[in-house]
Amino acid sequence: MHMNDKDRCDEMKPFIYDLNLDDLQAWAKENGEPAFRASQIFDWLYVKRVNNFQEMTNLSKELRAKLEDQFQFVTLTEITKLESKDGTVKFLFGLHDDHAIETVIMKHNYGNSICVTTQVGCRIGCTFCASTLGGLKRNLTAGEIVAQVVQAQKILDQKGERVSSIVIMGSGEPFENYEATMKFLRIMIHEKGLNIGQRHITVSTSGIVPNIYKFANEDTQINLAISIHAPNDMLRSKLMPVNRRYPFEDVMEALRYYLAKTGRRITFEYALIGGVNDQPEHAQELADVLKDMLCHVNLIPVNHVPERKYVRTSRNDIFKFQKVLAESGVNVTIRREQGHDIAAACGQLRAKHMELR
């Protein structure tokens, strides 16, 4: 399929969602427009949530033409939509360049949570995860991450509901796409836009040490979650090759800095894998590492990924593991599974789609 010149030109235009309010103000100034035009554009994008520039009816025709000429909207084409019995909806969206990403809307008793993706694929290589199959294809722009939330909000608009929280736990490692992730976060929390409460947003990392320090210094109220999955260096390296680059102790040291700097509780994500990291002695070792930290452990019974040979931890072993942590004074919960009937583990839908192509 050959691209015509218009398509090629569109490919190179920046996404309008890539711009925060300051960027839009700078753009308005450069284009001889008053600063308040930027606020109007921002309002059209995030409050009225229009689909194209022509709908921005309080802007002059000339200004709309200029926007049309210089920017494009992110096209997220729905390839697959799966709805779970528990209300979870999982989307596989096609991007402008034939790549695909997953976004999930989860229903909780406290509202709607959106799980967004920051990269196409992932290079971290965790051995129990489907996102990493096929490696990393590219980073998403800030606008492509923003578009996932806007698209989800447009879907919820039809029911008069709103996005109440965001988790950055889809495919990819957000801290390997740090600048785009931070720009996305600042657009999300802006009071003139979607105005998502900072404490209702969680960013999850596998432990990219330099950017844990950077994030600690960002002065936000956004929550940090860390995928730990093992209580020591040797086992973690087996499960998570990234541990060879950023060893366990370095990660823990960065997290201690984060705690000292922010005073904000850290969530440790721990995927339980049958017979690998789910025994009482692993729980005790983890409890010893975490005992003096302000933290919460989220136990995740691992989804069976057909390409991997891992088995699920038995219910009995899950509760034993939880009991050891709780008795050592560690705050711990077992993640309530959502979307189990629709392959809702990160990367599973995309992996299937890639196989069929």
From TrEMBL:
Misc. remarks from the entry: Reaction proceeds by a ping-pong mechanism involving intermediate methylation of a conserved cysteine residue.
Enzyme Commission number(s) from the entry: 2.1.1.192
Span of domain Radical SAM core: 108-341
Function per UniProt: Specifically methylates position 2 of adenine 2503 in 23S rRNA and position 2 of adenine 37 in tRNAs.
Positions of S-adenosyl-L-methionine binding: G172, E173, S204, S227, I228, H229, N303
Molecular-function GO terms, alphabetical: 4 iron, 4 sulfur cluster binding; metal ion binding; rRNA (adenine(2503)-C2-)-methyltransferase activity; rRNA binding; tRNA (adenine(37)-C2)-methyltransferase activity; tRNA binding
Subcellular locations according to the entry: Cytoplasm
Gene Ontology, cellular component aspect: cytoplasm
HAMAP family with a match to the protein in the record: RNA_methyltr_RlmN
Source species: Paenibacillus albilobatus
Protein name: Probable dual-specificity RNA methyltransferase RlmN
UniProt keyword annotations, A-Z: 4Fe-4S, Cytoplasm, Disulfide bond, Iron, Iron-sulfur, Metal-binding, Methyltransferase, rRNA processing, S-adenosyl-L-methionine, Transferase, tRNA processing
Sites where the protein binds [4Fe-4S] cluster: C122, C126, C129
GO BP term, pick one: rRNA base methylation
Pfam families the UniProt entry points to: Radical_SAM (PF04055), RlmN_N (PF21016)
